[in-house]
Amino acid sequence: MFNSLGWPEISVLLVLGLFVFGPERLPGMAAEAGRALRRLRQYTKGLTDDLKAELGPEVGDLDLASLNPKTFVRKHLFEDDDELVPAARRQVPLAPSEPAPWDPDAT
To answer: What burial class does residue 17 get, using C-beta atoms within 10 Å of its C-beta: 0-12 exposed, 13-18 middle, 19+ buried?
Structure first.
């Protein structure tokens, strides 16, 4: 969820929260945010279970996470299977004495 959020960004957010909410209210706010996140996860799990129950047994084993566009693209375009990677994109290592490819029209 927070893949692009590193430790420097988290520390800046904590210091900013400390200034905005104060040291007395910040732990309570963090606890409430954790409870809200837990409730949100429970709601989405319940929604997923209800959806699978309503769709029936033929799609009951459907992995909804695989329908995420990022996962779908990674699986179908960037997988290392020779069948899925086009021949033009496969990287073949050069022999020790072979020169690197060079296109005079590209320079």
So the answer is: middle
Domain ranges, ordered by start, for the chain: 7-87
pTM score, whole prediction = 0.48
Name every residue whose Cβ is closer than 8 Å to that of residue 60 and which is 6 or more positions away in sequence: 52, 53
Q: Are 65 and 71 in contact (CB under 8 A)?
A: yes
Query: Which DSSP state fits 58?
Result: G
Cβ–Cβ < 8 Å for 95, 89: no
Per-residue pLDDT of 11-66, as tens digits, reads 998 889 889 988 899 889 889 989 999 999 999 899 888 887 887 777 767 777 77
Residues 60/52, Cβ–Cβ less than 8 Å: yes
Cα separation, 106 vs 100, in Å, equals 14
